[in-house]
Amino acid sequence: MSGAIVLHDRVCTALARGRRRFDARAARERLLLIAASLALLGLMADFFLLRPALADWSAARARHAVAVAALQRAGADEARRVAVEQQLARDVAQGQARVDHAAAELRALRATLVAAPEMGPLLARLLSGVAGVQVRSMLSLGPTEAAAAGAGAPAAATPLYRHGVELVLEGRYADLLGGLQAIEALPQRMLWGGLRLQVEQHPTVVLTVRLYTLSEQRSWLEL
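The structure assignment produced for this chain is given below.
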């Protein structure tokens, strides 16, 4: 305890001596000492307080810049993802519209086509009334799968079959042309296939023509 008292007395004595010396100086010298002391305190504060705080602030600012850049990249990626999804949705909608349009056209076409079992009898009656045309033969070509009737998934769509008839006709060219025009003028339409002309003995011409219709039934009345 006595040592602490002695130290305290020495400190007080030194401070009092320093104060007397300070007071003994001229006013200008006292101002210079005060300014120097304040400058020293400022340097110490800068070294011990301001520089660490500035370093922490700089590090925090750098972390903030990194976070902002990451958010901007994430926003750009999200915008690209949304744009891709929107484009895919437009492509799907356009594709579905084309499928629906094709399905509507197919339904409209089927509504005008002759029924498969009626092809043979209809052609026989028609051509029997065309002067100068003789039917050599009428042959069924059998069904082949043509398309799907529905616009939904292929597994759920109704298959369509193409039924064909091959006619071999004989007559003069002008008479055969009249027969083809009569077929074309039928209210019940048929799909045209190949045509082949052969002159056997002038003026007789042999015409081979193929006609088709569409049906959901695979089997039909054989000719």
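Interim note for the steering committee: Confidence is low (pLDDT under 50) at residues 150-156. Helices lie at 2-24, 27-112, 119-128, 173-184.
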